[in-house]
Design brief:
Keywords: Heme, Iron, Metal-binding, Monooxygenase, Oxidoreductase. The protein is α+β, with helices and mostly antiparallel strands. Helix content is about 50%, strand content about 10%. It binds protoporphyrin IX containing FE.
C-alpha cells in the first residue's frame, strides 16, 4: 500500500481509515489519550489521525514517549495562533516543554541558541545570523548553488548509469552540506569528515550514543574552527560572529560554537529529505514532471507545493504555556506543553482545496512548511533556492532519471519520525 502509483490518497480512503481509527479509540475507552507521534500509514502520507482530529477535537491531549500529556493542535488557524502567541515559550528548560525523546531531553540542558529562546533574547541572537540568509543574499548565492549542483552531477554522471547510484550520498546530502559549510567558512578539505559526522547524526540507522558522539565530534571540530577565526578572521559567518559579536562581548566563544552548530545541523536532514521527496513525488506524478522538464520556471511552484505537501520538519513547532490561555475554546494551563502541528495545518481542508492532492499549479497559499511567527525558518530563502536549483538541474541533466527499485521498496524514515527517504537508488 505504499504510494507506488500516486502520492494522492482519495478522500473516501481517508474517511474509511478515519472511521476505523475512531473505532479503535472507542475500544480503549473515552479517557484514553493516544500516543504521539502518530505513525505515517503510507510512506509519505501524514498520519491519518490528523484528519480526524481536525474535524472532532482540534485541540486534544496526546501522550509522549515519557508518559507526559501535552496538547496537540491540528487546525491551521490554531497552529498560527500558537506560533504567534508571546505567552507561549520555546525555552526547553521550562517544566512542561514537550520533548520528543530522551536525547532531546538531555540536549535541552545545553547552552541555548536562538532556536530555543523567547523574545527579546531570541530576536537579538537571530539578528546576528539573519543578515546572511535574507532573500537578497539567497538570490546572490544562486550561481554558487548552481556551480555546486553541477559539480555533484558531473561526478555522479562520470560514475555511469549502468549500476544504480544512490542519490543520497552522491547528490541530496552533499549539495546542501557544501552550501552551509561554505557559508560558515569551513575548510573544504574537511568536508568529507564533517559529512560523515553529520550523516551519522541524521541517517536514522545510528544508535543514540553514536549520534551523540558524532554531535560532540562536530562541536569539538567547530570549536577548533572558531579558534582559528578568532586569530585570523575571514569573510564568512563564523568570522562575522567573532568580529561583530564575540569581540565586543555580545557572545561568548561557546555561543559562537553553538550557533555554528545550529546552522550546520538545523536544516541539513530536512534539506536532504526534501530533495529526495521532490524526486520521488515528481516521478509519482509523471504529467507534472513532464511539464516541469519542459518549463523549469515551474520550480518555484513545485518547491512551494513540496513544502506544503510533505512538511518535512513537522516536530519543531513546540511550545509551553507560561500562563493560562484559551485556544479554540480549550483551556491550556500554565506549564502545559503544546505541539502545533504544521503538518496537519498544511492539509487543512478549510485552507487548501483538495489538500491531499499534489499540485504544482496550486495558487500560493499560507503553507506552514517553514513554520510561522518569529521562529519561522531563518534560512527559508536559501532552502527554497537550493531545492529549486537541485531539482531543476537534476531533471534537465538527466531527463530519463528513474528509480532503480519499485516505489514500494523505497526506504522511508521510521513512520513516527519526520518524513524522509534514507536511500534512493536511481538510474538514468
Ligand atoms: C526545506 C528545508 C527546511 C525546512 C522545511 C525547514 C523548516 C523549519 C521550520 C518548520 C522551522 C520553525 C521551527 C519553530 O517554529 O520552532 C525552522 C526554523 C529554523 N530553521 Fe529551517 N528548514 C529548512 C532548512 C533550513 C536550513 C537549510 C537551515 C540552515 C542553513 C535552517 C535553519 C533554521 C533555523 C536556525 C531555525 C530556527 C529559527 C528560529 O528559531 O528563529 N533551516 N525551519
Amino acid at each position: 500500500m505504499i504510494l507506488g502509483r500516486t502520492a494522492t490518497i482519495s478522500r473516501s480512503k481517508i474517511q474509511s481509515i478515519t472511521c476505523l481509527s475512531k473505532l479503535s479509540y472507542r475500544s480503549i475507552g473515552n479517557a484514553a489519550v493516544p500516543k504521539f507521534p502518530f505513525s505515517r500509514p503510507y510512506g509519505v502520507e501524514p498520519p491519518i489521525e490528523y484528519a480526524q482530529l481536525r474535524v472532532n477535537t482540534p485541540v486534544s491531549k496526546v501522550e509522549l514517549w515519557d508518559g507526559s500529556h501535552v496538547w496537540l493542535v491540528t487546525k491551521h488557524k490554531d497552529v498560527c495562533d500558537v506560533l504567534t502567541d508571546e505567552r507561549l515559550s520555546k525555552i526547553r528548560t521550562r517544566p512542561g516543554f514537550p520533548e520528543m525523546n530522551a536525547g532531546g531531553k538531555a540536549a535541552a540542558k545545553n547552552r541555548p541558541t536562538f532556536v530555543d529562546m523567547d523574545p527579546p533574547d531570541h530576536g537579538r541572537q537571530r539578528g546576528m545570523v539573519a543578515p546572511t540568509f535574507t532573500p537578497e543574499i539567497a538570490e546572490e548565492m544562486r550561481p554558487l548553488i548552481q556551480k555546486t549542483v553541477d559539480e555533484m552531477l558531473d561526478i555522479m554522471v562520470q560514475k555511469g548509469c549502468k549500476e544504480p547510484v544512490d542519490l543520497v550520498p552522491n547528490f541530496s546530502l552533499p549539495v546542501p552540506s557544501r552550501m552551509i559549510y561554505s557559508i560558515l567558512g569551513i575548510p573544504m578539505e574537511d568536508l568529507e569528515y564533517l559529512t560523515t559526522c553529520n550523516a551519522i547524526r541524521t541517517n536514522g540507522s545510528a544508535t543514540a550514543s553514536q549520534a551523540s558522539n558524532a554531535s560532540n565530534d562536530l562541536l569539538q571540530y567547530l570549536g577548533k574552527v572558531t579558534d582559528k577565526k578568532i586569530t585570523n578572521p575571514s569573510n564568512d559567518l563564523i568570522s562575522r560572529l567573532v568580529v561583530e559579536q564575540l569581540r565586543p562581548g555580545h557572545l561568548t566563544r561557546e555561543d559562537v560554537v553553538q550557533i555554528a552548530f545550529l546552522m550546520l545541523v538545523a536544516g541539513n536532514a530536512t534539506m536532504v529529505n526534501m530533495i529526495n521527496l521532490g524526486v520521488v513525488t515528481l516521478l509519482q506524478h509523471p504529467k507534472q514532471l513532464n511539464e516541469f522538464k519542459k518549463d523549469p520556471s515551474l520550480a518555484k511552484g513545485l518547491v512551494e507545493e513540496l513544502s506544503r505537501f510533505h512538511t518535512a520538519s513537522a516536530m519543531a513547532t513546540r511550545r509551553v504555556a507560561t500562563v493560562d490561555i484559551m485556544l479554540n475554546g480549550q483551556l491550556i494551563k500554565a506549564g502545559e506543553g503544546i505541539i502545533a502541528s504544521n503538518q496537519s495545518a498544511n492539509r487543512d481542508e478549510d485552507v487548501f482545496v483538495h489538500p491531499d492532492s499534489f499540485d504544482i499549479h496550486r495558487p500560493t497559499g499560507p503553507q506552514l512548511g517553514f513554520g510561522y511567527g518569529v521562529h519561522r525558518c531563518v534560512a527559508e530563502s536559501l532552502a527554497r533556492a537550493e531545492m529549486e536549483i537541485a531539482l531543476t538541474s537534476l531533471f534537465q541533466r538527466l531527463p530519463n532519471l528513474k528509480l532503480a527499485i519499485p516505489f514500494s521498496e523505497i526506504k522511508y524514515t521510521c513512520p513516527t519520525a519526520d518524513v524522509g527517504i534514507t536511500e534512493l537508488p536511481i538510474v538514468w
